[in-house]
Amino acid sequence: MNDKTVVLIDSGYFVGRQKKHWSPRGTMRRNYHKFKAKKLNWFEYQYRFQKAVKGDLSYCEVVMSRMKSNPKYDKTCEAILCFDGIKGRQLRGAIYEDYKSARNKGLEVKASEHEGKDTRKIFTNVGIDIDEDLPIRWSYRYEESKEADDLIAELTMEYLLNGYNVVILSADTDLFQMLRYPQVRLHNFKKEITANDVEELTGVKPQIYADWKALVGDSSDSIPGVPGLGKSKTTKLLQNFEKIESIPLDEFRVYYAKSPVELANKTRKVREENNWSISKCKKEYGSAWVSLENGDEVKMNSEQVRKLTQAFDISGYLIFDDYYNKALMWKRLVRLPFGDGQPELPKSVN
């Protein structure tokens, strides 16, 4: 390991800042209205827009200084700004059509056909030439078919293999996975996130974060997760079994009644024949009892079914959906670097 450091910056930060600048009280919106009202000439208007974006670049430099890795002051550091490719969603969309569908704002577009905005225009539209005008020892990467986190993950591996330390600036939680390497540090533009922080938040180590997210779900990526698991149970399962592939298959099954009416009649009959109260049934056989007896459509996990089986043989009244293969698919979407394999570094670098 040498003393060189590369800082990988997620351009998603600048997308978020644009939303702030164009909010009702944002600087770009205010100056736009001034320009339209002819209170600003075009040159002043362009200058103010450029000043806002340069301010965002300056904040990145502040964060890098806090991480003691600012290329402006340290010749052993370099920074790479990583942009989303306009077709970046399509590779994952070929696997899962609903990928990030919640971000489409009602547009009927498949992820496999999605084309986003070229975020490099955030800079070029205000007169910043990203080939010439970025801060000293900065460069950028753009690949049409890759998202920014893919570029960051791939560059992380490349630079680690060449003996660099890596600092990542990103609020994308998928990049928690890169903290499996001790030479990687992560800052989300508000604070540094450590491997211990990830474990405290999720209960699992960064190297199995993809398993955790696949099971829990993530609305921002339109990954629903496995119904009935939740964060607490997912954490316990992964603490015991370490990865999705080792978890017992019945944990991926979501059970519901073949006929809610027949199951309602059965649960009521069992309770009445045994002279049990509703409160006893809830306490000993699970809160689902009440909904089942009311004839509601209830989705249950294997643990709930096991509790109910203590009261009577419920198996003949149930059918189930199996989420195992879906969970594996969602894990594949989350894993970084993206692809079938996840290369590890030589032992001398780990």
What are the defining features of this structure?
two-stranded antiparallel ribbon, alpha/beta, Rossmann fold, 434 Repressor (Amino-terminal Domain), 11% strand, 350 residues
Q: What is the secondary structure topology, with strand pairs?
A:
Elements: E1 5-10, H1 12-21, H2 27-36, H3 42-66, E2 77-82, H4 90-93, H5 121-124, E3 138-141, H6 148-161, E4 165-169, E5 184-187, E6 192-193, H7 195-202, H8 209-216, H9 230-241, E7 253-257, H10 260-273, H11 278-285, H12 288-293, H13 302-309, E8 318-322, H14 324-334
Parallel strand pairs: 1-2, 1-4, 2-3, 4-5
Antiparallel strand pairs: 5-6, 7-8
Describe this structure in words.
There is one protein chain. This protein is an alpha/beta fold. It has three domains: 5-84 and 119-193, Rossmann fold, CATH 3.40.50.1010; 213-250 and 325-333, no CATH class; 253-322, 434 Repressor (Amino-terminal Domain). The chain has helices at residues 12-21, 27-36, 42-66, 90-93, 121-124, 148-161, 195-202, 209-216, 230-241, 260-273, 278-285, 288-293, 302-309, 324-334, and strands spanning 5-10, 77-82, 138-141, 165-169, 184-187, 192-193, 253-257, 318-322. The protein is built from 14 helices and eight strands. The mean pLDDT is 93. It is 41% helix and 11% strand.
